[in-house]
Amino acid sequence: MGKIKKICVVTDKYPTDMNPINTFVDQLVTEFSEQDLECIVIAPHSLTRNLMRRDNEVPPRIRFKNTESGNTIRIYAPRYFSYSNNILGFNTAIMSFCSFKRAAMREHKKYLFNVDAYYGHFISPSGLTAYELGMKYHKPFYIAYGESSIDIFKNIDRSYVVKALRGVNGVIAVSSANKTELLENGIIRDNEENKIGVFPNGINRNRFYVIDKQEVREELGFHKEAFIVAFVGDFIKRKGIEVLSSALENLKNVYSIFIGKGNLQPTCSNILFKGPQKHDQVFRYLNAADVFVLPTLSEGCCNAIIEAMACGLPVISSNESFNDDILDNTCSIRIDPKNVSDITNAINLLLFDIDLRSRLADGAVKKAQTLDIKRRAKNIITFMESRI
């Protein structure tokens, strides 16, 4: 078994205080650092998003984050230009990938990072960039696979991805469903199944935990007797925000909290809060709610669900296999994410069956205790070292 002391994490979008996107990446890197891995992050920043006014912030090119134990994470944000996936019938996604890759590799060459391994967070563009770095500098590389679907081949040549995965030291899959996808699609060969480790996402339970519901409702200005549904996620079709909004419109005495942002907006009545929140404030809104609902169509492994469970919320979410590793009948009600009536009936059941709501709430806290970021990071490090 080899030993990894210094690692370079390549990722697309790294969170800042002003733009708390992909916070789960930061949580994992932070825990790597807390477990005495020296961490360097290369997170190329797309200037196109600023020009298109999708992002208001341009992060510093170099910044430092100090962990609670006093360790330091170095974060590099070289600039690049990205493109939509298709312009006038031409596949421009490959242009975005090449631009991202060049920016990351230039940054690496500029500072001459001497690391023991590379970790790419998701296959494209980060994992494929980690592959290029690993090949160039003759170091082991690992790829996290947590995509919500395996549609990467629509934009990136399949043979190139398969070649990269043939050389990978290990794949960190966030769910059993992701592992199955890799094998069934021939991306990882059956005789190399041991390259894949399944590590469902974990959360920092020092940030997400149960607090007094009535006290936090008073702080937030919410009615103490209201029945409140919480949603956390991008305001996009895949997350089911329109379906949930329609379901809530059928329940006149139910209130809601929608945390996130995106092109779609909930239109139901009785919305108490709608919009983005800093990640360290989300737990307060979750604790103010009675149930968490996410009728998502596809996921890798959803952090928002685990965070909600840690705050003591019963979960109503999809009955698809991507939820199997984190949801069961002790903590959730599984529904058809496209069926408005299914969602309405599940919310209604928890509204009136207080005993069931209490049992699922207790089960949610217990389930979240098994999905801890410290344990996950330790297991991933052990897996990576075993694959050298």
Kindly list the characteristics that best describe this protein.
single chain; 388 residues; alpha/beta; 13 helices; 19% strand
Any overview of this molecule?
- By secondary structure, the chain is of the alpha/beta class.
- It has helices at residues 23-34, 47-51, 93-111, 123-137, 158-167, 176-184, 213-220, 241-249, 279-287, 303-310, 340-352, 354-369, 373-386, and strands at 6-10, 38-42, 45-46, 62-66, 72-76, 79-80, 86-87, 90-91, 117-121, 141-145, 170-173, 196-198, 227-232, 254-259, 271-275, 291-294, 315-318, 332-335.
- It has an eight-stranded mixed sheet with strand order 4-5-2-1-9-10-11-12, sandwiched between helices.
- The mean pLDDT is 93.
Radius of gyration: 21 Å
As a percent range, the share of strand residues is 15-25%
As laid out across the biggest beta sheet, the strand order is 4-5-2-1-9-10-11-12
Low-confidence regions:
none
Task: Assign an overall shape.
Answer: globular
Number of strands: 18
What can be said about the biggest beta sheet? Answer: 8 strands, mixed
* Count of helical stretches: 13
Helix content: 25-40%
Query: Kindly, what is the distance between the CA atoms of the first and last residues, rounded to a whole number of angstroms?
Result: 6 Å
Q: Can you give the mean pLDDT?
A: 93
Structure class: alpha/beta
